[in-house]
């Protein structure tokens, strides 16, 4: 990938201090997203996908916090910005789409007002210009008779339409990156594919990069340029989507790829592998996947593997290690 | 929406009818109205005539019907104590009570909402903790004690505010107001605080918990993700969503304020209907008591109606029938 790095996450660690010790929800995660690129993020529930995304947009809720590592947007560090600086980046540089369109919109305001408010927050426009832009945005996301619907309240839209409005809101100020956290999980299966297509099309047109969190490997296969597989707060494998799908290097990824459903069909959650992911307070020594790994060997139980080059990808598994074991 | 209003009006009418019946029952079954009017030495035939004239021996539904018709015209009979028309007595004193209640409610809202918002936004700050602790005291102290305490501090020790009465009033037609004179304004401060303190703490706690609840919702998170300023998120998006429960409680509490004015009016010798009611209890002045009951019932019903209407103003989901566009 020769295009310049838009987003760089380096050794990110997100912690939750609790009474019974500190929980590490995201552990030593490093990833990059180039301008206009779609990075898919998959992994079982609790793997830390949302936490990574939330850390990037700077909305971790206390007591959750970034304990170490850094996040850079176009080379500028954004993980340590004060709230009022970061909020100028949110929406303007990094947009966000959350899982549930039914609850993402404020029920008491017209969708047009929510759009205009977002536009005026970030762009130097008059109210009338912002309104025109809002209508245009609604048209772009495929809302019929947008000029009228701008005066509707969220409850007057169906779930799919609401998620379109949410996409319009995320794109309102032309951000360079959108963090989309399971944007279709809450929707009817029949419209999931449409929404993904729409998101993909709009981002391609605007040159917007996307971090697409999903459980649906089919969506990843059709949409993403690269994919990161997360397990227990860490990245198990990251690489170009075709490579990861066709030649997975990490045993966990191999398990996931065992059954790729075709896009648009409801998939069961990614747990085709026996057993379940360890809880945050009981992550085993060595490789976190070792209790479930069919290829586990001695080294896995003592030493934790970091990401290592594996073909065109990177995987954190001792199987791909070039250097000999230390034990 | 029209259908809703009509339905509510019918409900309100039914409630009022029930209240009127209780009041009517007090009138008729507690004591003998004729015996209260006539003296020891009234001749028997005169009593019979009086009974006929008053219609006391008519069948109950007829008497109740007459009671309702009279009540709607503001005719509630004569006070046993002063022999004045009860309707007039109440009307004379109502402005004092309403002004006191209104000022108390405004005080409770104007102080309670900002305090609640602050405590909801910064639940861990020392100021919020202090407000929560003090509000507990405010809730548990009885009203008359607060009143006496305030009188002691501001009237007795500091001597800057009057401890009783309404000050000078100005008459506008039937309405006499104390809000336009300096002495009237000074006189209303202590009773209004006394009366409003409980509601203040209630509103503050309510706004706080609603605010904390709303701040956890997805649309607030999404509003932040859109880069809106803290002010827009807190006051534009969060506060407005706390309003529905606040309106409900405030509405109900306004009724409670008017009803509880009895105690405050007594402590401060405030010439309102509450004080009148208490005097009537002492004299077993049934007409005044039952009229007071009808009046309080009426106030509650009217406030409830207004609260229901306000929901429509605040929450668009109630205004429109769930018209959804095809999302497929
Ligand atoms: N407030 C919190 N306190 C402690 N732990 C938390 C808190 N919020 C989340 N976590 C933990 O952080 C871990 C990562 O959660 P995250 O939401 O990122 O998972 P995810 O990969 O997005 O899963 P899902 O697919 O279910 O959305 C989980 O194990 C979760 O239990
Ligand atoms: S490091 Fe060992 S346990 Fe972990 S995935 Fe690789 S082979 Fe399996
Ligand atoms: Mg998640």
How is this structure best described in words?
The complex is a heterodimer of chains A (327) and B (328). Chain A has 327 residues and is α/β, with parallel strands linked by helices. Helix content of chain A is 31%, strand content 24%. Chain A has an eight-stranded mixed β-sheet, sandwiched between helices. In chain A, strand 11 (308-310) and strand 12 form a beta hairpin. Chain A starts with a strand and ends in a 12-residue tail after the last strand. Mean pLDDT of chain A is 88; it is low at 261-271. Chain B starts with a helix and ends in a 9-residue tail after the last helix. Chains A and B meet through helix 2, helix 4 and helix 7 of A and helix 9 and helix 10 of B. Bound molecules: adenosine-5'-triphosphate, iron/sulfur cluster and magnesium ion (MG). Iron/sulfur cluster binds next to loops of chain A. Residues 250-251, 287, 289-290, 293, 295-296, 300, 305, 317-319 of chain A line the site of iron/sulfur cluster (SF4).
Short structural description:
Chain A is an alpha/beta fold. Chain A is built from eleven helices and twelve strands. In chain A, β4 and β5 (76-77) form a beta hairpin.
Order of helices and strands of chain B: HHHHHHHEEHHHHHH
Physical arrangement of strands within the biggest beta sheet of chain B:
1-2
Please tally the helical runs of chain B, counting DSSP H or I stretches of 4 or more residues: 13
Mean pLDDT over all positions of chain B: 84
By helix and strand content of chain A, what is the structural category? alpha/beta
- Tell me about the largest β-sheet of chain B: 2 strands, antiparallel
Largest interface: A-B, 45 and 30 residues
Number of strands of chain B: 2
The tally of helices of chain A reads: 11
Helical fraction of chain A equals 25-40%
Unreliable stretches covering 5 or more consecutive residues of chain A? 261-271
Name the quaternary structure. Answer: heterodimer
| Portion of residues within helices of chain B | over 70%
* Distance between the ends of chain B: 30 Å
Q: Estimate what percentage of residues of chain B fall within beta strands.
A: under 5%
């Amino acid at each position: 990938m020769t295009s310049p790095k838009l987003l760089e996450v380096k050794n990110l660690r997100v912690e939750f201090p609790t009474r019974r010790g500190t929980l590490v929800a995201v552990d030593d995660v490093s990833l990059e997203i180039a301008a206009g690129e779609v990075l898919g993020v998959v992994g079982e529930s609790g793997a830390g996908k949302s936490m990574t995304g939330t850390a990037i947009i700077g909305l971790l809720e206390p007591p959750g916090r970034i304990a170490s590592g850094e996040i850079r947007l176009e080379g500028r560090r954004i993980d340590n910005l004060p709230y009022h600086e970061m909020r100028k980046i949110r929406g303007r540089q990094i947009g966000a789409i959350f899982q549930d369109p039914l609850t993402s919109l404020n029920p008491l305001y017209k969708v047009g007002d929510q759009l205009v408010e977002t536009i005026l927050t970030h762009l130097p426009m008059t109210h009338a210009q912002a309104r025109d832009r809002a209508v245009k945005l609604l048209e772009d996301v495929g809302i019929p008779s947008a000029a009228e619907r701008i005066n509707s309240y969220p409850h007057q839209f169906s779930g799919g339409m609401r998620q379109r409005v949410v996409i319009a809101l995320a794109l309102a100020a032309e951000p360079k990156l959108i963090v989309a956290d399971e944007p279709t999980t809450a929707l009817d299966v029949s419209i999931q594919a449409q929404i993904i297509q729409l998101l993909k099309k709009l981002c391609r047109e605007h040159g917007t990069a996307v971090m697409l969190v999903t459980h649906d490997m089919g969506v990843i296969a059709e949409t993403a340029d690269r994919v990161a597989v997360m397990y227990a707060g860490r990245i198990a494998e990251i690489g170009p989507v075709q490579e990861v799908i066709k030649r997975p290097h990490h045993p966990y990824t191999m398990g996931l790829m065992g059954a790729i459903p075709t896009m648009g069909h409801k998939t069961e959650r990614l747990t085709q592998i026996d057993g379940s992911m360890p809880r945050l307070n009981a992550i085993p020594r060595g490789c976190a996947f070792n209790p479930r790994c069919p290829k586990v060997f001695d080294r896995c139980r003592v030493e934790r593997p970091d990401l290592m080059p594996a073909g065109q990808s990177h995987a954190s598994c001792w199987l791909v290690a070039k250097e000999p074991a230390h034990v | 929406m029209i259908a809703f209003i009509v339905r509510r009006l019918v409900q309100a009418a039914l409630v009022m009818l029930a209240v009127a019946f209780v009041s009517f029952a007090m009138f008729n079954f507690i004591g003998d109205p004729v015996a209260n009017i006539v003296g020891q030495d009234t001749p028997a035939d005169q009593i019979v005539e009086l009974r006929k004239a008053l219609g006391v021996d008519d069948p109950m539904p007829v008497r109740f019907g007459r009671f309702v018709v009279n009540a709607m015209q503001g005719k509630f009979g004569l006070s046993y104590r002063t022999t004045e028309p009860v309707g007039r007595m109440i009307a004379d004193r109502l402005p004092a009570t309403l002004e006191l209640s209104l000022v108390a409610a405004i005080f409770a809202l104007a102080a309670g909402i900002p305090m609640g918002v602050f405590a909801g936004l910064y639940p861990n700050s020392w100021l919020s903790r202090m407000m929560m602790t003090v509000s507990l005291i405010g809730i548990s102290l009885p009203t008359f004690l607060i009143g006496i305490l305030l009188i002691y501090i501001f009237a007795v020790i500091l001597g800057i505010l009057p401890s009783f009465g309404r000050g000078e009033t100005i008459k506008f037609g039937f309405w006499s107001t104390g809000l336009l004179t300096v002495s009237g304004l000074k006189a209303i401060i202590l009773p209004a605080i006394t009366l409003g303190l409980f509601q203040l703490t209630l509103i503050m706690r309510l706004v706080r918990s609603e605010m904390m609840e709303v701040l956890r919702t997805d649309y607030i998170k999404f509003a932040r993700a859109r880069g809106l300023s803290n002010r827009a998120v807190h006051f534009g998006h969060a506060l407005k969503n706390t309003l529905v429960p606040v309106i409900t409680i405030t509405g109900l509490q306004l009724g409670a304020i008017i009803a509880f004015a009895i105690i405050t009016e007594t402590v401060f010798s405030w010439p309102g209907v509450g004080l009148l009611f208490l005097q009537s209890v002492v004299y077993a002045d049934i007409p005044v008591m039952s009229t007071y009951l009808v009046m309080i019932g009426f106030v509650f019903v009217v406030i409830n109606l207004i609260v229901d209407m306000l929901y429509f103003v605040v929450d668009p989901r109630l205004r429109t029938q769930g018209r959804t566009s095809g999302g497929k």
